[in-house]
Amino acid sequence: MSVIAPKFRLGYLVKGITDNIFWIIVLLTLIGIPVVQIVLIYIDFPVIDGEIWNPFRVFDAMTHPERALPLVKNFMQTDLFKVVAFPGFGFAALIAAAVIFVERKMLAKLQLRVGPFYCGKVEGILQLMGDGLKLISKEIIIPAKADKPLFWAVPVLFAATAGAFVALIPVAPGWVVADIDLGLLAVFAVIGFFPIITILAGWSSNSKFPFIGGIRALYQMVSFEIPLILSLLGIVMLTGTLNLSEIVESQSFFPWIVFMPIGAVVFFICILAELERIPFDLPEAESEIVAGWLTELSGMMYGLVQLGSYLKLYAFAALFVVMFLGGWNGPSIFPMEPMAEVITDGIVIMPDALVVKDIPGLPLFAGEMINGTIWFILKTAAVIFFILLPRGVFPRIRIDLLLKIGWYKLIVLAFVNIFIALALVYGGIIGPGGII
Amino acid sequence: MSNQVYPKDKEILPGLQIEKVDDRIMTLNVGPQHPGSGHMRIIIKVDGDYIVHTDPDPGYVHRGEEKMAEYRNYITNIPHLERPVIHDSCNILYPYCLGVEELLGLEVPERAKYLRVIAAELNRCVYIEYWLAIYGIFLGHSTMFMWPVGDRELLIDLLDKMTGARVTHAYFVPGGVRNDVPPNFEDVCLRQVNYFEKRLKEYADVFYDNPILISRTKDTGVLSREDAIKLGTTGSVLRASGVDFDIRKKEPYDVYEELDFQTSVLKEGDSYARSKIPWLDMFESCKIIRNALKKMPKSGSVRVKLKPKPKGEDTEVYRRVESGRGALGMHIVSRGTPQPYRLKISVPSFRNLIAMPHLLTGEKLGNMPAVYWSLNYWPVEADR
Amino acid sequence: MSSTDSTEIAKTDDSSLASDLDKSLSDSISKKFSNVEIAYVKPDRIRVNVKKEDIIDVVSFIRDELNFDHAESVSGVDYPEDKQIEVVYHLGSYTDTSLDKKIIALATRTSREDDPRPGNDNTILPSLRDVFPSVSFHERECFEMLGVYFDGHPDNRRLLLPEDWADMPPLRKDFRIKGR
Fold first, then answer.
1. Complex ipTM above 0.85?
2. pLDDT, greater one: B91 or A64
3. What would the pLDDT profile of C107-144 be if each residue is shown by its tens digit?
4. Which CATH number fits the domain that encloses residue C68?
5. What are the extents of the domains in chain A?
6. Residue in chain A nearest B150 by alpha carbon
7. Could you list the residue range(s) of the whole structural domain that residue B143 is in?
8. Strands C45-50 vs C37-42: parallel, antiparallel or unpaired
9. Residue in A208, A287, A399 closest to B137 by CB
10. Torsion of CA A41, A43, A48, A54, to 10 degrees
11. pTM
């Protein structure tokens, strides 16, 4: 094994750190503070607790976190935060990055090798960043006779559609970007876009292998969308709603997988097919059609499609959790509210030494939300693990066998699942006016 | 006595003749820059998902080994003749050495014969592991790519100890082997081969018993016994079609007569059987190695001394051995010069290539990698 | 086989080592066809020289009566001093277990021209592809490497050489490698 930093000296490290601190201070004072001042003069200020903020209060808040808390809490309730950061894109992209890393390391362990190892010094945790930089710095090559507007649109459309899918997933009570009454129907509508995008990619690149890959993707996704939709209908019958948040709330006592195991299995297999993951990675079957509909994509166009597909992976796993595993419901492992004396007296960290005063506005997030998020992430990680696992175990399936599974077996099983749901509803066991 | 394979009326094998196809059929150039082709091109015409015409186009790595051999003498031919298939370099030198020994009239020492058998069997396993790895990745099974490549390292280490080189050994010379093995070689070899055999059994769990693999390869690319004989296929392709023909048994060279092993034969003739035969062969190879280690003389010379530029008789020889892919023959024409007048290498890959258009035509495109690589075809060797 | 003391190999002594089966095979060929020449009968190896007019008959006899069912190799040898090119077919048997070790080397010769135009000159041999489909690719290789046109072969195209190869067939003796 090669030495990672052969000429390491502590002096150089200290010098590097102090240099960086020096430059940060210099740039912050010379550029950062004037810029903030100029910006603050021009923007509108929100009204918080009945009083309007002004630039001086913002500057005041910058000096002490306690005074900035109301501003931060206000920001977290805005749509911008929800779309960009927490239940939306940022959160999903972070999970997607983690999934890529875990996938590579897990597959490596399965195959008796080490996987990413050097980049980032600790088990290659920065490998993904390196890959991203590589993709960004690569040249984007467009085939000469490609349909250029469509070709450029494909990666953007793919990532955007995956992002739209992510926006429909409720992560914690109240924490969902788009909480619409027909949430499940919206999910089906968004899924319906993916085959169109893949066939567009295959068509617009004007190349044979992408075209075959696009056609295969079309076949595969269309034939697996039907059992996917059917497998979720049973739950809609039992809950009587299409709103994903309400579906999660209906599972506070038991998850639907207890009553719908067949539906869960069908849905899981459909997930694998929709995600084009091994054993159903036919649209990208390397040894047959090079890289399928991704063949002509290069550089960050490919990177965007990969990002989109991992966002899609997260979204499907999250949908499985929402529909079958009870979403954010779970035993309380995070204290819901601090005890009364803590609120009044503050927390005694060391006896007689230091008493932290009660800070108004804390905690930043409700305990219920953090608890829900933790359960949601744990369940999603478990589902993602089972989505990743077949890659190390299975070879690729053939397209005719795949379509046969989709049309002959999964649809039948999905109908069995629906009949179970109907029996439960009409038997009065569950559902509106049922025993449970 | 009539021949059962050839019926009296003439018939044309499907896939071997050029068919006229209309323009709406898509032509795919699979290779030479294609992850599923190797160093060759297969021009495939597809009608929907079905292959209607296949035209293999090898030659991208043609190096003119046969022409080069006419300019070099019998000893200096050794290092370049192993280049066509460096993963099986002992076995491709084997018929050459046997033929040159027959031409020069050399008697190989007993210990060298056993060392040759051990090296050849180790090399066969190295080749098959590499082939199996690529078969795994062709079917999209990445674990089956990593495992054989990792286990192959065990045997490469052994060959490294034995010959001094990891891949291109140039170990066989006319009249014996180049050098003797290090003193503790027998123990190390036995230990590593035993461990290797244990690992081989695990492949069944992850690969050969995998239902998806079976559904993909069973009944695809079926080569009947008659067609296998007619097309002159050899090695694992032939034995998967139910013809029990292994040169090691049928025309034993060196000490294969005295060793105890079976040839593996399956009757199905489909891709699954063709992919399984080499794996079964590796178990037999382990058996042969253990057997040879037991019977090998503990000491003795390993090479006869040769004159600087030995001259052959004015005659010709044809010798063949069973390599990792099948029967590998060498036709050496000598005219009393230090160089061979003509050296023809009849390689198994080239002989199995003829089955490719026969098998692929009529298959689905998705079966192409499964059928193609199950032919145990090594493009570099076929090009020579 | 391997321990054969081959220093003694000369064409006359060699036949003494050959088995009865070898001799009976060669006898049956020479009895049936008067104008073929049995060049040698070594242990398990028989070489038969035939004229190119007779080769289809001889090879059909070998296939149908002697049970040799496939060709192992087709090697062309160039003899510029004789102005001839020899093509040697090595025939073997899978179906008949008594013939496992036996190889019949069937050699035939055709005329050779100093200025070769492959396919358009007199270097022509009848193709054995209809008798043995296994020679199909071997004959294609022989065609491009030595310029022997196989009459009756439906697919006399380049196989290994590049499509734009414009020099003479490379395995002829007057094609020299540069620097040698």
1. no
2. B91
3. 888 888 877 777 778 888 888 888 888 888 888 888 88
4. 3.30.460.80
5. 89-333+364-426
6. A112
7. 65-298+306-352
8. antiparallel
9. A287
10. 10
11. 0.82
